[in-house]
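Let us work through a complete example step by step.
Step 1: write down the sequence.
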Amino acid sequence: CPARSAAGWGPPSCGPQRAVPDTSRKPSGFVLLAAGGAGKSFVMDWLVEHEPSAVRVDLRTLTGPELRAEVRDAITRSGSVYLDALEDAASYAPAAFRILERELTTPAARSIRWRLACRPAAWDADLAAALKSSFPGFRELRLLPLTRPAAYELAASAGITAGPFLEALVKARLGRLAASPQRLLAAAHQWSSTGDLPKSHVEAISFEVDRLLAEMDRGRRQPTLPVDRRRRLAARLGTITIFSGIARFARAAEAVT
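Step 2: predict the structure and record it as tokens.
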């Protein structure tokens, strides 16, 4: 999509647009492409709940053989099959895209309405070509930024005074945060707590990390580590996750299988 006005919520000019409920009626399947935090999983969850007989397969921590078995089992149920977070599957099982390319294009799989979701940078060109060849009309869809009413509803659902927050957002020319509901909520929490909006992505992330590290339930044992040490540990774990492809961590007391 072309860039909107800096203040945000200008009319998009991205060509044909499709409302979320309409995607469930698309017979030939689609992949929903959007950056992390843009709302892919939220949309996929909503569609699964509203599409009769839909099947969702959680790919995030499956090995290659497990992924193949889960997809084959889903095919036997017919109907629509939702596969979310393909980028996570590929980081956990490097051959994930090749497995999906083979399994999703078998004769048995061609009766399935496939609904996929992936980050654009991770989307695999060979898988895309195979799906478009096997399913004429298979589309690559992209999430548009939230409309202003949708942003209002999202902020209000988090307990934020949405009207003044959105006015402050527009005044600061930060309406582009609407492209990422996750970032929009982080900015809303910071504004609600401090009265200020983040001046940079780094400041917004730092505030959100501090908020997530805080133990808000006073009935639970409070962390013994100082805040600065907890922040450094979180930064190290985040760095390991990003650069090593590790998808999950286990505590020392937990068995790792």
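Step 3: interpret the result. The chain has a mean pLDDT of 81.
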